[in-house]
Specification:
- The chain has about 280 residues and is α/β, with parallel strands linked by helices.
- The chain has one domain: Dihydropteroate synthase-like (TIM Barrel).
- It is about 40% helix and about 15% strand.
- The protein contains nine helices and ten strands.
- Strands 8-5-4-3-2-1-10-9 form an eight-stranded parallel sheet.
- It is globular.
- About 50% of the residues are buried.
Length: about 280
C-alpha cells in the first residue's frame, strides 16, 4: 500500500507521472479503463524514478465532453486500487468530482489533483478535509465544457497582469480550502499553464514563477506536451519532449517543487541535473 507522502520541500524536485485512464487524452497516451495497461505503465514510471502517480479518468483538453460520474468511477477506482496494492508510491487522483475523489481516496490514493481548485464541486473540500488528503489547487479561468480557442490555443482572458491574477486567485482558493478544514500543510498550488491562458500568458507565468512563492506553499507545474510547448517550432504532440523539458527545467529554476510529466525517465534525469544547479 502507498505510504503517506513525506515531502521535503526545497531538498529536490518531485516528479509526478501521468496515467491517463481515458480513451481521448490530448497527449496520445490514453489507456482507457485497462487496469493491466495502467499497471504496466506505472511499473515503467516507477522504475524510471517517478515519485507520484497521477490517475485521471476525464480529459481536461479544450472542448472535451464531461464524463458522467459512473463512467469516471469505472475508469479510475479499479486502477487506483490495483496501483495501491502493487506500489508504495503516493497515488494522486486527477478529478473535479467529490465522489470520485472520495472513492479513490478510499481505494488508496493520498492526493487529489483538482484543475478547478475544489470550486466546481461544493462537496470536494469536505471530502479532502475528512480524508486528511493532500490537494493540488490549480488556477483555471476557462468555463467548464466551453470551446474557446484561437489557433489551437485558449482565447485570451483580459488580464491586466496574468501573474498577479493567478496569485490572487490561488490565494482565495487556499483561503476557501482552509475555511473548509483542509490543513494548510497539505495544500499545493499550480498556476495552470495552458488553462485559460494564451501562449504568451503561459510563457509569462513561467518567467515570473518565483512570484508564486509569495503564497508560502509548494508549487506544482505541468508543462508536459502542452500546446504552448509546440507552438514556437510548430511541433506535433509526439515531438514535444525537448521543448517540454526546457519549460520544465526553467520552472524548476523558478521554484517548482513538483513537475507533472508524461515522459518520466527523461524528466527525472533533467530534474536531477536542474536540482544540482539550482539547489546545490
Amino acid at each position: 500500500m502507498p505510504t503517506a507522502p513525506d515531502f521535503r520541500w526545497g531538498a529536490r524536485t518531485y516528479v509526478m507521472g501521468i496515467l491517463n485512464v481515458t480513451p481521448d487524452s490530448f497527449s496520445g497516451d490514453a489507456l482507457g479503463a485497462d487496469v493491466e495497461a495502467a499497471l504496466r505503465q506505472a511499473e515503467t514510471m516507477a522504475e524510471a524514478g517517478a515519485d507520484i502517480l497521477d490517475v485521471g479518468g476525464e480529459s481536461t483538453r479544450p472542448g472535451a465532453s464531461e464524463v458522467p460520474l459512473e463512467e469516471e468511477l469505472r475508469r479510475v477506482v479499479p486502477v487506483v486500487g490495483a496501483l495501491a496494492e502493487r506500489f508504495e508510491l503516493p497515488i494522486s487522483v486527477d478529478t473535479t468530482k467529490a465522489e470520485v475523489a472520495r472513492r479513490a481516496l478510499g481505494a488508496g490514493a493520498r492526493m487529489v489533483n483538482d484543475v478547478w481548485a475544489m470550486r466546481r464541486d461544493p462537496a470536494m473540500p469536505g471530502v479532502v478535509a475528512e480524508a486528511g488528503a493532500w490537494v493540488v489547487l490549480m488556477h483555471n479561468r476557462q468555463a467548464p465544457g466551453a470551446v474557446d480557442e484561437v489557433g489551437g490555443h485558449y482565447a485570451e482572458v483580459p488580464y491586466a497582469d496574468v501573474v498577479a491574477a493567478v496569485v490572487g486567485w490561488l490565494a482565495e482558493a487556499v483561503r476557501l480550502a482552509e475555511a473548509a478544514g483542509v490543513e494548510r500543510r497539505r495544500i499545493i498550488v499550480d498556476p495552470g499553464l495552458g488553462f485559460g491562458k494564451t501562449y504568451s500568458q503561459s510563457l509569462e507565468v513561467i518567467r515570473r514563477l518565483p512570484e508564486l512563492q509569495s503564497l508560502g506553499l509548494p508549487i506544482l507545474v505541468g508543462a508536459s506536451r502542452k500546446s504552448f510547448t509546440g507552438r514556437a517550432l510548430r511541433l506535433a504532440v509526439d515531438q514535444r519532449l525537448e521543448t517540454s523539458l526546457a519549460a520544465m527545467v526553467l520552472c524548476i529554476a523558478g521554484g517548482a517543487d513538483i513537475v507533472r510529466v508524461h515522459d518520466v525517465g527523461p524528466s527525472v534525469r533533467a530534474a536531477r541535473m536542474a536540482d544540482e544547479i539550482v539547489r546545490g
